[in-house]
């Protein structure tokens, strides 16, 4: 198909980050929203975050306890399967690695189901959450995270398409085998690598 | 699952729907029946290899065999939409792959459930696919459409919606004009708000399944208002087309 082109078509908006743009993506300066349904509103009083499944002793934090954990700043590029990418987004939050210090994961655990207030789920390999590769984001540009972007807290896994970065995160459940989450059951990729364009299940 | 492959569709018709919206009818070598609500990805390639991809909902129903209608709004400075509007003529080839999307779809199991469609601008496109399919299979589930448009000239599929309403007592549509209404208009002339949605929801005897599509702000607002009005969140299906203005 390399020989095919659309006569007269060319890049319209200059792109200074071409080497950071995965195939099929374009750069946006706003922060679009992708959610299957309405935005859940989660009162801080009833918010919790848990690590469950294949762990020796599950742990649950309240909002106040969670806030007290060591926070960091992260500057990352994000890539949404609906084709937009946004560069150098500035977050603050808690590294997943920091959370894992509070539990012992069972040896057979290889995958994680991230689950959210409101019922959303998404599956990820455990390795992709470890060693600073993922964090729980609680704010952007120094502001608390807005509800439509997943506030009060969302998972952020910059190396994968953004639907893997579950909004309104409620916990991580450790599993031995990979299982499809919400969008994955609806036909999206099990892994979601933007650099190889794993958008849909048939791209895996 | 076999990979959804790129294929070259031939433009066999171009229909000017409104001053800024055209429908591109593509004949596909590898057409498969879509579910109403699904979309195709469309890819343009420049001679130097640069590519741009966008998603476009399918306007046509699965009964229209072997081809798809993509109804596309021209955006000023839009990279893909402006090229399609300005640079494409009948006989041209366009790369697409699909059908895609497993959530914002009107499934067989939904055929007997009351249905509320809420659309803004080009967000009417997947809703039209639902209405066309619903009409083709002669479904009789109570169905309403609340459609927000800027002006009468910018109403996509306006006549077809009128015709559907005339033929089918179980379907009705309400339009709201946000910039300029027709002469002697006594209906809504503002952006979709809670009263408007409450009036729609009040027409049903049980909570309807809700499909909302359009610019992100409209979808966000309508979905939250429907929850406020007591529609259970799992009944609400939302498709956000993105913002049409950069910020
Ligand atoms: C699932 C899905 C289904 C969709 N279905 C439809 C459909 O049925 N019909 C439809 O019309 N659309 C649909 N869309 C939207 C569509 O995918 C495109 O987003 C839309 O056509 C705009 O693409 P574009 O390349 O023309 O504009 P882009 O080049 O992406 O620009 C978008 C807007 O931003 C502005 N802009 C962007 N970059 C710059 C810059 N650097 N400087 C100045 N301005 C800039 C442009 O002026 C334009 O208004 C759908 C989207 C999704 C996610």
Total beta strands of chain A: 11
- Structural domain count of chain B: 2
Instruction: For the largest sheet of chain B, list the strands in their spatial order.
Output: 4-3-6-1-2-5
How many DSSP H or I helices of chain A?
A: 3
Percent of residues in helices of chain A comes to under 10%
Q: Number of helix segments of chain B?
A: 5
CATH architecture of chain A: Alpha-Beta Complex
- Identify the CATH class of the largest domain in chain B: Alpha Beta
> Which ions, cofactors or small ligands are bound in this entry?
flavin-adenine dinucleotide
Domain Oxidoreductase molybdopterin-binding (chain A): 37-183
Organism (chain A): Spirosoma terrae
InterPro entries (chain A): OxRdtase_Mopterin-bd_dom, OxRdtase_Mopterin-bd_sf
Protein name (chain A): Sulfite oxidase-like oxidoreductase
Please supply descriptive tags for the structure shown above:
heterodimer, A: 204 residues, mainly beta, Sulfite Oxidase, Chain A, domain 2, six-stranded mixed β-sheet, five-stranded mixed β-sheet, globular, B: 247 residues, alpha/beta, Elongation Factor Tu (Ef-tu), domain 3, Rossmann fold, 2 domains, six-stranded antiparallel β-sheet, five-stranded parallel β-sheet, 5 helices, 11 strands, binds flavin-adenine dinucleotide
Describe the structure.
The complex is a heterodimer of chains A (204) and B (247). With 204 residues, chain A is mainly beta. Chain A has one domain: Oxidoreductase, molybdopterin-binding domain (Sulfite Oxidase, Chain A, domain 2, Alpha-Beta Complex). Chain A contains 3 helices and 11 strands; from the N terminus they run βββαββαββββββα. In chain A, strands 1, 4, 5, 8, 9 and 10 form a 6-stranded mixed beta sheet that branches. Chain A has a 5-stranded mixed beta sheet with strand order 3-2-11-6-7. In chain A, strand 4 and strand 5 form a beta hairpin. The longest helix of chain A has 5 residues. Chain A is globular and about 60 Å long. The mean pLDDT of chain A is 90. Chain B has 247 residues and is α/β, with parallel strands linked by helices. Helix content of chain B is 21%, strand content 32%. Chain B is built from 5 helices and 11 strands; from the N terminus they run βββββαββαβαβαβαβ. A 6-stranded antiparallel beta sheet of chain B has the order 4-3-6-1-2-5, covered by helices on one side. Chain B has a 5-stranded parallel beta sheet with strand order 9-8-7-10-11, sandwiched between helices. In chain B, helix 5 links the parallel strand 10 and strand 11. The longest helix of chain B is centred in the middle third of the chain and has 13 residues. The radius of gyration of chain B is 18 Å and the shape is globular. Chain B starts with 6 loop residues before the first strand and ends in a 7-residue tail after the last strand. Chains A and B meet through loops of A and strand 3, strand 4, helix 1, strand 6 and helix 5 of B. Flavin-adenine dinucleotide sits at the interface of chains B and A.
């Amino acid at each position: 198909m390399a020989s095919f082109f659309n006569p007269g078509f060319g890049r319209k908006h200059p792109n200074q980050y071409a080497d950071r743009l995965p195939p099929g993506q374009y750069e946006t300066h706003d922060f679009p929203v992708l959610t299957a349904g309405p935005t859940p509103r989660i009162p801080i009083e009833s918010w919790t975050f848990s690590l469950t499944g294949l762990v020796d002793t599950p742990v649950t934090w309240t909002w106040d306890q969670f806030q007290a954990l060591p926070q960091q700043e992260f500057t990352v590029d994000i890539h949404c399967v609906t084709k937009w990418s946004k560069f150098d987004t500035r977050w603050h939050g808690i590294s997943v690695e920091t959370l894992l210090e509070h539990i012992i994961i069972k040896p057979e655990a290889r995958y994680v189901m991230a689950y959210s207030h409101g019922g959303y789920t998404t599956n990820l390999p455990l390795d992709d959450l470890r060693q600073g590769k993922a964090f729980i984001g609680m704010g952007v540009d120094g502001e608390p995270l807005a509800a439509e972007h997943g506030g009060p807290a969302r998972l952020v896994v910059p190396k994968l398409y953004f639907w893997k970065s579950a909004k309104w995160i409620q916990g991580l459940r450790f599993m031995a085998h990979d299982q499809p989450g919400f969008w994955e059951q609806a036909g999206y990729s099990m892994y979601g690598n933007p650099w190889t364009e794993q958008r849909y299940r048939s791209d895996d | 699952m076999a990979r959804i492959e790129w294929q070259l569709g031939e433009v066999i018709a171009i229909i000017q729907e409104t001053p800024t919206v055209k429908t591109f009818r593509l004949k596909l070598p590898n057409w498969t029946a879509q579910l109403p609500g699904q979309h195709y990805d469309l890819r343009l390639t420049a001679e130097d290899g640069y590519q741009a991809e966008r998603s476009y909902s399918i306007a046509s129903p699965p009964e229209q065999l072997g081809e798809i209608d993509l109804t596309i709004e021209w955006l000023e400075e839009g990279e893909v939409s402006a090229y399609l509007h300005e640079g494409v003529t009948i006989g041209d080839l366009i790369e697409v792959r699909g059908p895609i999307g497993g959530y914002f779809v009107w499934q067989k199991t939904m055929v007997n459930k009351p249905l509320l469609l809420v659309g803004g601008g080009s967000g009417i496109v997947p809703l039209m696919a639902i209405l066309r399919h619903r009409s083709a299979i002669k479904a009789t589930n109570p169905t309403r459409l609340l459609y927000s448009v800027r002006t009468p000239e910018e109403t996509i599929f306006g006549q077809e919606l009128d015709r559907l309403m005339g033929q089918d007592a179980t379907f009705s549509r309400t339009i709201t004009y946000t910039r300029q209404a027709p002469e002697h208009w006594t209906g809504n002339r503002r952006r979709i708000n809670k009263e408007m949605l409450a009036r729609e929801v009040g027409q049903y005897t049980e909570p309807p399944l809700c499909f909302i599509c359009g610019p992100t702000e409209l979808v966000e607002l309508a979905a939250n208002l429907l929850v406020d009005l007591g529609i259970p969140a799992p009944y609400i299906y939302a498709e956000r087309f993105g913002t049409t203005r950069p910020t």
